[in-house]
Amino acid sequence: MRMTGGEAVVRSLTAHNVNMVFGIPGTHNLAVYDALGDAGSIRHIVARHEQGAAFMADGYARASGRVGVCLSTTGPAALNTLASLGTAFSDSSPVLCIASQIPAAGIGLDKGFLHECRDQLGGFRAVTKWCARADTVRSIPGVMREAFARMQTDRPRPAAVEVPCDALDASDDVTIPEAAVARRLAPDADQIDRAVALLKAARRPVIWAGGGVITSDASDELRQLAERMQTPIFTTVLGKGAIADDHPLSAGSVILHPAAREFLAECDVMLAVGTRFTEEETERWALRLPASLIHIDVDREEIDRNYPAAVGVVGDARASLRQINAQLREAQKLGSWATTRSFCAPQWGAMGAPTKRREDVAKLRQDILRYCHARAPEGVELVRTLRAALPRETVVVSDLTVAAYWCRRLLDIYEPRTNVYPWGFCTLGFGMPAAIGAKLARPERPVVVLSGDGGFLFNCQELAVAVQFDVPIVVLVFNDNAYGVLRPQQEARYGRTHAVDLVNPDFMALAQAFGVDGRRVTAMDQLGPTVAEAIAADRITLIEVPGPMPWPVMEPSARMFDAETER
Q1: What is the dihedral of CA 309, 314, 315, 317, to 10 degrees?
Q2: What are the backbone dihedrals phi and psi of residue 415, each rounded to the nearest 5 degrees, phi first?
Q3: Are residues 465 and 439 in contact, defined by beta-carbon separation less than 8 angstroms?
Q4: SS3 readout for 161-198
Q5: d(C-alpha 185, C-alpha 212), whole Å
Q6: Is the separation of the CB atoms in 541 and 517 below 8 Å?
Q7: Is residue 157 over pLDDT 90?
């Protein structure tokens, strides 16, 4: 069929069941936008900045489990997406950026074309799993299909496709191939057998679940395994929601707390699923794990990268957990293994009984809450207030702010894909645009943003997008008139501050200017009712919460403040 390059791009998206894209038109990509005008199955959300568009695509991907797509024109617009793509790369989120280019014959010649970038594709290469250029109309569908295949194979990560503007404008006979099919990486049978043998011999096992569990939709399999073995589950920040935080075996995202470390020291086997053991999750790899580690990850390069594994299982999390569950279930039927015997080994006695394990988990969580409340009651009260105000199914989207630091550890999350956090890259300004994408992906759910004043102002212009497309998110702006994550660190380390104080706009006037509801609370007892009312109203609402929050005491970084106090 004869079509333009722009039509080839859009029809390739349609073939992959893409029904929403985020972007901004430009001189070089107008052929794509002309084709979108005829594609009734694809909704386009026009952003106010390309970084915002790519963050929206990321929020959409994380909340839905589908590929998020953003469009940009050439040069500065394409480069504006790089911080967002780096965020998606760090957190294993499938985002596709489709960018235009200068005319194909001019690439690399430095002749001074409009929007010319010396190595645009090289910029994408640093923050994507795969990137390529489609130089001709006929090559576009194949390159697009390959991008989808790469994003959905093994670890999901972003991809980028660039198309010269003359190829987008030209026409040719084109065939759109069938969509790339996502395939789960099956684990090696021998690796599964070795993992099962180690679990069957374990006297006091523990599970650490990462974002890979959520990406793989493996929450049911994880819960079944934990219940079969009566094994406590810790989660990473990106793993929050892999198991409901009110499940009696859920130990939460507090593995770095001293009480959790003591709990971990009594365990003999850890099953880690879909986690990379990153610097922030392990306190620069100082966290001591149990003697035997079973590490399940879809990326073979992660096995033994940061911690040596007694058994490394390279495979999809859901497929791997299903096979482990099947073997343990069969062993129970045959009487060759029983959870009660496994947890009542002589050296543990009654201490290992399933009921006791649940009691141990409950006590651990209560002890940590009491510790945090004694040290910084305002932080715990914030978490409790928000949890009481938020419906169970709420999608919580965080930016980088001290309030979100409290919530990333202590706020209970109950379902997969309802905790959206820029963890690996820690990119300021992520929260609000990502929330727009998440709400468009899950319109039936409340979406609440936790942002600081500094981070909010990075991308506050995207409020106009929420208004234009009627995306009713609730944005909490914790306003301490500073880069509040940095100010206390400067004070603790140097005894003074520099370049962290901010002069902010009147946020209520700003809300009015955008045409959204604005609320200001002055005390914590006002916050819960205000948030609940905003969610019930189903309108775009900006809630300002004045004043600094205390540093989260469950984070290892809190020690710097202890040292300052002792001096």
Answers
A1: 10
A2: -140, 150
A3: no
A4: EEEEHHHHHCEEECCCCCCCCCCCCCCCHHHHHHHHHH
A5: 13
A6: yes
A7: yes
User: Please, which residues bridge with residue 23 across strands?
Assistant: 46, 71
Q: Give the other-Cβ count within 10 Å of 505's Cβ.
A: 11
Q: Which domains does the chain have, with CATH numbers?
A: 2-173 (3.40.50.970), 189-362 (3.40.50.1220), 376-566 (3.40.50.970)
* pTM for the full predicted model: 0.95
483 HSE (CA, 13 A, CB side)? 12
Specify the 3-state DSSP secondary structure of 2.
strand
Name the percent of the chain lying above pLDDT 90. 92
State pLDDT tens for residues 462-519: 999 999 999 999 999 999 999 999 999 999 999 999 999 999 999 999 999 999 999 9
Of the candidates 84, 69, 63, 47, the residue with the CA atom closest to the CA atom of residue 463: 47
Round to the nearest angstrom and report the end-to-end CA distance of the chain.
Answer: 76
**And the tokens for 122?**
């090289």
Nearest one of 365, 362, 359 to 253, comparing CA atoms: 365
Greatest distance between any 2 Cα atoms in the chain: 78
Tokens of 262: 């003591």
Using CA atoms, how far apart are residues 468 and 344, in angstroms rounded to an integer?
Answer: 61
Q: How many CB atoms lie within 10 A of CB 42?
A: 16
With 60 as the cut, is the pLDDT of residue 181 above it? yes
**Three-state secondary structure call for residue 543:** strand
C-beta neighbour count of 407 within 10 angstroms = 25
